[in-house]
Amino acid sequence: MTDQTQNVKPRVSFRRKYHRFFKFEFIAGIVLTGILGALVLAATWLFPEGGRTVDLMARLTPPFLSWEHPLGTDPLGRDILERVILGGRISFTVGILSAAGAVVLGTVIGLLAGYYRGLWDTLIMRFADIQLALPFILLAITVIAIVGPGTDRIIVLMIVSQWVQYARLVRSSVLSLREREFVQAARSYGLRDRKIIFGHILPNALGPLIILLTLNVANNILLESSLTFLGLGADPQTPTWGGMLSEGRNYIQTAWWVTVFPGVTIMLTVLGLNLLGDWLRDELDPLGRTSR
Amino acid sequence: MPVIRFITVRLLQAILVTMAVTLFVAFAIRLTGDPVVMMVSEASNVTEEDLARIRESLGLNQPFLMQYYDFIKSLVTGDLGDSFFRGPVWDLIAVAMPATLLLAATSMLVSILISIPLGIYSAVHKGGLADQVIRVLSLVGLSFPNFWLGIMLVLVFSITFPIFPASGYTGLASLVLPAVTIGIILTATNVRLVRTTMLEILSAQYVMVARAKGLSERKVIYKHALRNGAIALVTFMGLQFGNLIGGLVVVELVFNWPGMGTLSVEAIAQRDYPLLQATVSILAIMIVGVNLAVDLIYGLIDPRIRVA
Fold first, then answer.
1. A6, A166, B131, B199: which one has the fewest Cβ atoms less than 10 Å from its Cβ?
2. What's the farthest any 2 CA atoms get from each other in chain A?
3. Model pTM score
């Protein structure tokens, strides 16, 4: 008896605690992503010169000293705050466009593969094996050695290598959904395949997709900064987080702020998205199919 | 003979993937532009005949499939030929590979030492304060670029407090910062893995039985639960090997670590494609090999996996 009560009691309090925790994740995620997103959206309007104003008199000004350069300046006297906010444009663009491209491509192929099985199905699974064997960074440095650096290339590469994740996820949802009664009913009702796939199966497979999408945006922002850091992304003139880090690295002995602030910004952005992704997972995917 | 069938299928798949990856790498690298032009760009009076002669000596005038065949042959025989600028490829890899393996193994070790106790604690005290702190911290750990963490560690531990060397390889002390960098990044994923695995196992019936027998909680967790979870954990961590290698490439560069990542990036900069082809292919083959080994071992231990 005592054993049972011991088992039941923490369960209830755990649930209550957890519910608060989900909310904390949601609020923190929304606030972080919202503030950073809004700043980045307003960046072009806030800083029309595009963060390229060079002020050699103010080279490497330390942060927190003046209102003019609240986060200090870089080795060319450019304002760090301005460049950090402007740099978000590239990061957000890459994160969102690459994930959007991959989700559309992957979903369509996954739906078709799961519904019709056969050749597509086999191809996807083999492609996934190949992707697993060639880490994105290695793929990217090989391909970018050919086509030359650039943000657009990074986006295309991400789509090409990441649609598989979505295809596999959707495929596995479809495999179980296509045997369910409501799909069978729709089929016996004489609905066309296209209607069944997009009208009945897809809406029921959306939950895990949205989670993966959020985490994918976050991950691609990290990848973009790595590639730009390696010199494979946007040109050094354009303000980017990875670019600022690779520049600032040479001044790490004397000017910590040049590398600290872009890094913290990346962290806050990605953390915001990860918090949202985690919250979504707890809400939409209690079985943990999308856990990493 | 389901076991033999299972092993054969996995082996064939691994060979197919290896073929596809090497073919892709070889093909992609051939498109990077003419390395011969790069090689002689500094010399002034070069004639077409000279270019042709160099191409012939490097085997670049052969059809692509012939070159690919040569490359595969060289991988199998271990004679990787010469890099364009730096002598035999094999010598370069013989130096870089141990450095990378050392770093990879140490990072794994760092990560296991941190993530297993934390993950278990988090799972056992699920919903408690410590669990939530660990969850948030692991999420933070997933949220910054690995190379930035490396730079920050250099800032603190070799510039502000000069304890460890910031770059290069000058003895075991230089291993600390790069290994901790990758170790922490791996830990962020691994803690969650350990936590989920343990949560699943702790709710299993045999754990209930162990508790009902009156075993101490310590025995239940470490002897019954962790041992059963270990198989799954080893598998998951093995499958992370690809991520580990990907992370190594960038972090090696930050610390100027003389490993495969640094070698690959240098090879790209110089369009040294015998070298690049060898490094990328060998890394990919290693990943395929580790995944295969993990798969086979797990499949042999736990027959339920073979079907999937």
1. A6
2. 78
3. 0.84
Q: Do B271 and B35 meet the contact criterion of CB atoms below 8 Å apart?
A: yes
- ipTM given for this complex: 0.81
Q: How far is the C-alpha of B256 from the C-alpha of B178, rounded, in Å?
A: 10
Instruction: List the single residue in A130, A141, A268 with the smallest CB-CB distance to B268.
Output: A141
The string of DSSP letters for chain A reads -HHHHHHHHHHHHHHHHHHHHHHHHHHHHHHHHHHHHHHHHHHHHH-TTTT----GGGTTPPTTS-SSSTT-B-TT--BHHHHHHHHHHHHHHHHHHHHHHHHHHHHHHHHHHHHH-THHHHHHHHHHHHHHHS-HHHHHHHHHHHH---HHHHHHHHHHHHHHHHHHHHHHHHHHHTTSHHHHHHHHTT--HHHIIIIIIGGGGHHHHHHHHHHHHHHHHHHHHHHHHTT-SS-TTS--HHHHHHHHGGGTTT-THHHHHHHHHHHHHHHHHHHHHHHHHHHH-TT-TT--
Cα–Cα distances (Å) from B14 to B27, B111, B263, B306, in that order, read 20, 28, 25, 15
Q: What pLDDT is stored for residue A6 in this prediction?
A: 45
Q: Is B195 on the interface with A (CB under 8 A)?
A: no
Collect all residues of chain A within an 8 Å Cβ-Cβ radius of residue B243: 135
pLDDT digits (tens, 9 = 90+) for B15-26: 888 888 888 877
Instruction: Tell me the mean pLDDT in the region B68-85.
Output: 78
Beta strands in chain B (DSSP E): none
Amino acid (1-letter code) at residue A14: F
Choosing among B9, B17, B158, B240, which should be mutated to test the A contact, i.e. which has the most A CBs within 10 A?
A: B17
Find tokens 């090696």 and name the residue: B252
Cα→Cα distances B180→B141, B161, B186, B246, Å: 12, 16, 10, 16
What tokens appear for B229 in the block?
């979870």
Q: Which of B138, B146, B143, B137 lies closest to B103 in space, CA to CA?
A: B146
Tens digit of each residue's pLDDT (9 = 90 or more) over A145-176: 778 888 999 999 999 888 988 988 888 888 88
* Probe site for chain A from B11, B24, B34, B142 (most A CB atoms < 10 A): B142
